[in-house]
Write a structure and sequence with these properties.
alpha/beta; 7 helices
Length: 206
């Protein structure tokens, strides 16, 4: 019964947005992080941004529309994102990116890899290395095990979100090597969710 309810929510982009927004207190911490680390509206106004696994397009507004590209594996999420944000969003698998080499300056990965197994993430890392320019940046934010044992809502969120591959901080790091090096990392709390944040740079040795 609960699984059927979750499937129903996941099939409805509006309901899913409400569900996630409540859990992460309106995504305020996430929006601030994107602005601080990627500065989409500042600096070089030719930079192009990829929203990896963009879902319902929740973070599209964090980027200049003309320089934003997103994709997701779920067609109903892509349709919703196009209708709501008018974004350049496509249906695509994250381990077979249909983009040319070195065409993005920065990539946002917001809560995607904890849904995917290790082999997929490693293939995705290789593809990201291919499409990112030599001085490009990845901002990667992923769920980690709940740090506060009294955070029962956070534990419930992990179960409801069906993230079957929530990993430790070091595990995520190993999966991105040898394609990327970590410039800096930290942990943060967004609503009831414990997250790890990585700022990654393309490794030219790969």
């Amino acid at each position: 019964m609960i699984q059927e309810l979750l499937n129903m929510v996941a099939r409805q982009p509006v309901l899913w947005n409400i569900f996630r927004s409540i859990a992460e207190f309106g995504f305020v911490a996430d929006y601030q992080l994107i602005e601080r680390e990627l500065q989409p509206f500042g600096g070089d106004h030719t930079r192009r941004f990829l929203d990896y696994g963009s879902g319902t397009g929740q973070f599209a507004r964090s980027f200049p529309a003309e320089r934003y590209v997103g994709f997701d594996i779920a067609p109903h999420y892509v349709r919703y994102a196009r209708k709501r944000y008018g974004s350049a969003v496509s249906v695509m698998s994250g381990d077979q990116l249909g983009y040319s080499d070195a065409c993005f300056d920065a990539v946002l990965i917001m809560g995607v890899f904890h849904h995917l197994d290790d082999a997929f993430v490693q293939r995705a890392a290789a593809e990201l290395h291919r499409v990112l320019r030599h001085d490009g940046t990845i901002l990667m934010v992923e769920d980690i095990p709940t740090q506060n044992r009294w955070n029962l809502f956070g534990r419930a969120m992990h179960w409801l979100d069906r993230g079957d591959n929530i990993r430790s901080v070091s595990h995520y790091q190993r999966l991105m090597e040898p394609y990327f090096r970590i410039e800096r990392s930290s942990t943060m709390v967004s609503g009831v969710c414990d997250l790890v944040v990585y700022v990654l740079r393309r490794n030219e040795m790969a």
